[in-house]
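Kindly inspect this today.
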Amino acid sequence: MAAEERKPLHLEGTVEHVMYCNAENGYTVLELDAGGTLITVVGEMGETEEGEQLSVDGEYTTHPRYGMQFRAQYWERKLPADALNIQRYLSSGAIKGIGPSLAKKIVENFGDHTLEIMEKEPTRLLEIRGISPKKCESIAAEVKQIFSLRTLMLFLAQYDIRSKYAMRAYQKWGNGAIDLLAANPYLLCVPGVELDFLKADAVAQGMQFAQNAPQRVQAGIIYILQYNTNNGNSCLPLDRLRPKACAYLKVNEADFEIAYAGALDEHTLCVYEKNGRDYVYLEDYYIAEHYIADRIGVIQDFSAPEDNSEFEKMIDAQEQEQGMEYAALQRKAIVTALSRGIMILTGGPGTGKTTTLNGIISLYEKQGYRVMIAAPTGRAASRISDLTGYEASTIHRMLEVEYDASGGMGFQHDERNPLECDVMVVDEMSMVDVLLFEHLLRALRLSCKVVLVGDCDQLPSVGAGNLLRDLIDSGRVPVVALKEIFRQAQKSSIITNAHKIIGGEYPDLTQKKSDCFFFQRLKPDAATELMLELVKTRLPKAYGYSPMEDIQVITPSRKGVMGVIELNQRLQAVLNPPSPSLPEVKSMLYTFREGDKVMQIKNNYDIIWHKDGENGTGIFNGDIGYLRAINRQTQEVVAEFDGRRATYPFEQLDQLELAYAVTVHKSQGSEFQAVVMPLLGGFPKLYYRNLLYTAVTRARRLLIMIGSQKVIYQMVENNRRMNRYTCLRDMLEQQKSTAQTQRLEQPEASGTTEQDAPEQEESS
């Protein structure tokens, strides 16, 4: 049964002991007396007190350090109903100003009705000897606060909203949460609470909110913009957003304009005018693109070209020391990096990017600079570290994730706590989105040099923005594009075909004695059978490759007979078939088995890993590993990623997928000894030149394409770039024009024309 389909277990009991409570996020660890058995319960339950009655739904898990626990998914706090537990509850210090002695007096006076009287008739506490009017008022305020959370949970429960959202709302707004949500239930969608718009809409319907209520329309606009950030757009043109929102929310344009104007006044939305057209942003993305443009302007203002002759001499000395000679463009790139505050180094495979980068880093270090190297994913960081010999880290790990009081994610390193480096090198820049780059720039000192390395012909980032392309096209950042394919690289058909593809030429599919092969198979069954045979038998026998560690199947799509889901099931059946000796566990998509190749599909910053006596946290989207153990007793699996072992409760299996086959997007930033790529039919939107180029360049030593030559040629012909709505390029160009004007120079005409993005679904 899938993890999501398992019926939660139910517990009821009295809180015996609260062992831990995080006031910032409400995470609590307590012991529950359930019928005479003490059970450790964990979850976002807030400040729970001893003596309270707790009703909990969830499941048992095993923590690697603390052992068996009951993880609460749903819960309801029930205040004690009998005099004995009420006295115990009040004696625990749950209400400030009431200790054991006073608790005994109050309960002796009011009995089983004590809490009801304290909530509804608090002035009756004056009947108790020792309680003054001032103390009575103070206790009444405390009681009101305690009952507010309970009331909020009951209020939202009638709309089938889980307790954790009530807890988050209470942490954000306190005693006023019910009044705020009654006036605007769409506040449940805001950061820190983060209920889905459709669920908030259902709550609002239950409250009889009008369909054209400004609160609903504003929330719907935000939902559509958020949805489109998943499509890579950091903004949307107003003339496209308006009809989409009206159609989705079933309101007219007048209703839209009222809500839109209100959102602009409240700074919930921001607008940027480009070429006479308004582009609408969520605030975070607007701030990010503006900050990037402004910061690059500051870097440029502080990095006037230096005396290049000194750098040329340094390069000459390095060539002599290493017994090699840089090509002209490589020398230019090194000089640019050393002399300017920021530069972009780009180029396809075989053009000497790694050699050039090594030269840049070496000469920086000879000048005494502290160099840090970052990449957007763990596999990309590992790869650049292997290629350069210098230690590299993911950007997230380098910035060090932390959480604020409302549970929102941030980073420890920013303007107030910058990174200790003089040079920041970022590899695989095509994968970096605007929000992450903004955070990285904020963590760098103004004097820090920045070297951005990437291939702008590869797919853009999964996150919003078209960062590398915008930086290059703006003309605001010095760019050196390496174009010469070196002689040794020319021997590789993988490299030569990659350059043909990106240049709009058909790849050579006739080679039979090279590192790049094509097998024509026009029926899905035949293509799949050949793929299975190659991965399981032929490639291991001919080249000694491990089917698990060296060979990777890459495909454009997730769905369909040539998609990731179907291919993973077929590959698992031949590479890791069912066996009585191999434990299994089912998730929504897959049956996981010990030994399976798996991929993490979302960032998990909190999961603990162990490696050679070292402990750390965080397994990230795109990390590939292997299932080493499945323990059905403890309801956990152990997965290993590059030597780091992490334990997952069964309920977190939705963070893992089989990885015998992966999409081209998920493969980006990685290289594999051998790549097998089925290309037959599929979804036209996914079959285009940049995607084929990205897939081909994932292969280090061997590439095998299976399918239709016609499909491959159509992909080469389809030069549909992943155009995205973003205004960063224009912001950079405007910033450049302003700088030129301030220097009393004649501004250059940008000649920029907007390229409309492809049609996308902008609401679900």
